[in-house]
């Protein structure tokens, strides 16, 4: 049985970066991400009344998540995306799914 992984990344934007600037870079990042094998689903959110963003990515397996994480650091599109994020604010976790409902979108 395959165990899905939820990758949760919390972060803030770098000083002086607007959400509009970030969303433009996010489009390029999504193009990269959508081409990756093992991607199931992604949501990007912003906490209410806060400058914290939360990126939630569902992966088929932990191997998929870690493989794409390495590819992320090697991709020029992703490097541009990372330049807009306050590196000191990044918190990344991989979480094993133990129960879930069916996705009905």
How do the strands and helices of this protein lay out in sequence?
Elements: E1 5-11, H1 19-34, E2 39-46, E3 53-59, H2 62-74, H3 76-83, E4 91-96
What's the gist of this structure?
This protein is 35% helix and 27% strand. With 105 residues, it is an alpha+beta fold. It has one domain: Alpha-Beta Plaits, CATH 3.30.70.
Q: Spatial order of the strands in the main sheet?
A: 2-3-1-4
Q: Quickly give the CATH architecture.
A: 2-Layer Sandwich
Percentage beta strand: 25-35%
The CATH class assignment is Alpha Beta
What is the CATH T-level topology?
Answer: Alpha-Beta Plaits
Count of helix runs: 3
Instruction: Give the number of domains.
Output: 1
Shape: globular
Class derived from helix and strand content: alpha+beta
Low-pLDDT parts are none
**What share of residues is helical?**
25-40%
Measured on Cα atoms, how large is the radius of gyration?
14 Å
Q: How far is the N terminus from the C terminus?
A: 24 Å
Succession of helices and strands: EHEEHHE
Mean pLDDT: 93
Q: Using DSSP, what is the number of strands? A: 4
Largest sheet: 4 strands, antiparallel
Organism: Pseudoalteromonas aurantia 208
InterPro entries: Dimeric_a/b-barrel (IPR011008)
Protein name: ABM domain-containing protein
């Amino acid at each position: 049985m395959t165990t899905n992984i939820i990758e949760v990344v919390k972060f803030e934007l770098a000083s002086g970066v607007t959400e509009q600037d970030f969303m433009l870079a996010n489009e390029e990042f999504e193009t990269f991400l959508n081409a990756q094998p093992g991607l199931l689903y992604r949501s990007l959110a912003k906490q209410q009344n806060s400058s914290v963003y939360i990126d939630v990515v569902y992966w088929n397996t932990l191997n998929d998540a870690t493989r794409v994480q390495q590819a992320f650091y090697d991709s020029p599109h992703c490097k541009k995306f990372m330049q807009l994020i306050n590196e000191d604010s990044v918190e990344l976790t991989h979480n094993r799914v133990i129960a879930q409902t069916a996705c009905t979108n």
